[in-house]
Specification:
The chain is an alpha/beta fold and 401 residues long. 37% of the residues lie in helices and 14% in strands. The protein folds into 2 domains: 247 residues, Type I PLP-dependent aspartate aminotransferase-like (Major domain) (Aspartate Aminotransferase, domain 2), CATH 3.40.640; 132 residues, Alpha-Beta Complex (Aspartate Aminotransferase, domain 1), CATH 3.90.1150.10. It has a 7-stranded mixed β-sheet with strand order 1-9-8-5-4-2-3, with helices on both faces. The protein has a 4-stranded antiparallel β-sheet with strand order 10-12-14-13. A 3-stranded antiparallel β-sheet has the order 7-6-11, with no helix packed on it.
């Protein structure tokens, strides 16, 4: 290492504290002892029902269901739209393991679609695979907050009769051309896991405008015959045709987590702007480093930059590994999506060997082979972002020389 080595000393996994108003509300729920969402007095809505109303309103959607996780929300979505065992579901190849995991959990086949240099789904490959007669479903993952051209996505879905489900784990609060991510598909699924845009430790939210889908999702989630206690729901009559035919999967959120989330929702848009302040500074500084490329983002994409991705131009595997190791020595922790072995949260489609047949996706392999990923927690100040970029630049210069 250089004699003038800079060191970053903050944690990449430390989030901001839960707001005091949320803590107070959570304590109130705990003191009541009524954490279960259906343990409410007659006429009382409870924290979970209120969260569902408020998030549906935020999204401009008719209905919302609070779930145990985003993965469970995706699973409920797949089941509720009608995916059957043996059906084929399209999904982009650059995503995290819970996404194909939920397709597998629904006993469906997974057909992965290539990605492009901007990390979003390759729309030409999507169009080709959408024409396969057996394909009826498309679970798009807005991986790491990168939103594809949703105008063309919707066009492809309409032309080929695809039902669209959105995985918005990384795009809560984001938009495409002024329209909120998660409102394009038949169902949108969101995460409130610790590292996402609202933090309840674990949690998920499912939104839809479709009464049949929401009735089935509520029943699947584990409402028993208490679905009337939901207030963000269709008319009770809609449940009649499904209530004796729908298994209970126990994927509910509880009042304690909902109490933590409701005050965070009030500040969500402000928090998103704070992330973008940090992202845009890092993007500018990283793009000044000769061997680093952060792909430009479409002007229609109203992204939320809670993480940043870049490629190491001209690096082979050994140089990538050196780059990662040297940055880690200096306190900058980067993930790499080109590793043959899964590490922590990071894996590639080649690690998902429960697939019936692993595809060969040369473009995805090329892009992921040098793709680095970094969280941007709001505990970082702008000066922290500058220091991180300086360290990355120093390491890149040393390895490139």
């Amino acid at each position: 290492m250089s004699h003038a080595t800079k060191i970053f000393q903050k944690s990449f996994t430390l989030q901001e504290p839960i707001p005091e108003s949320a803590i107070a509300k959570a304590v109130e729920v705990m003191r009541s002892g009524r954490l279960h969402r259906y343990n409410v007095d007659p006429g009382e809505k409870g924290e979970t029902a209120l969260l569902e109303e408020e998030y549906a309103s935020y999204m401009g959607m008719k209905y919302c269901l609070a779930c145990a996780s985003c993965g469970s929300a995706m699973y409920l979505a797949l089941k509720s739209v009608g995916v059957q065992p043996g059906d084929t579901v399209l999904c982009n190849a650059f995503t995290l393991a819970p996404v194909p995991g939920m397709i597998e959990n629904a006993n469906a086949n997974i057909a992965l679609v290539e990605i492009g240099d901007d990390y979003t789904i390759d729309l030409d490959d999507l169009e080709r695979k959408a024409r396969i007669p057996s394909v009826k479903w498309f679970l798009i993952s807005h991986m790491r907050g990168h939103i594809a051209n949703m105008d063309r996505v919707i066009s492809i879905c309409k032309e080929n009769g695809l039902v669209l489900i959105e995985d918005c784990a990384h795009t809560m609060g984001a938009m495409w051309d002024g329209r909120k991510s998660g409102s394009f598909g038949l169902v949108g699924c969101f995460s409130t896991q610790t590292y996402k845009h609202m933090n309840s430790g674990e949690g998920g939210l499912l939104v839809t405008n479709d009464a049949q889908v929401m009735a089935r999702a509520i029943l699947y989630s584990g409402s028993y015959m208490l679905y009337d206690k939901h207030t963000s729901r269709p008319d009770i009559d809609v449940f009649e045709q499904y209530k004796l035919l729908t298994p209970n999967y126990s994927c509910r959120m509880d009042n304690l987590r909902a109490a933590l989330l409701r005050p965070q929702l009030i500040n969500l848009d402000r928090q998103c702007q704070r992330w973008n302040d940090r992202y845009q500074l890092l993007e500018k500084l990283l793009n000044q480093i000769p061997c680093i490329s952060c792909p430009p983002r479409d002007p229609k994409e109203g992204y939320v930059g809670s993480s940043i991705q870049f490629n190491l131009v001209g690096f082979d595997e050994l140089r990538v590994l050196r780059f990662l190791a040297e940055n880690e020595k200096r306190g900058v922790y980067l993930k790499w999506f080109g590793s043959t072995d899964p590490v922590g949260y990071t894996s590639t489609y080649q690690s998902w060997q429960y697939f019936k047949e692993l595809p060969d996706l040369p473009e995805t392999n090329r892009i992921l082979s040098t793709l680095c990923d970094m969280r941007i927690p709001l505990t970082f100040e702008l000066d922290d972002c500058r220091l991180i970029a300086e360290i990355i630049a120093e390491v890149a210069a040393e390895i490139s020389s």
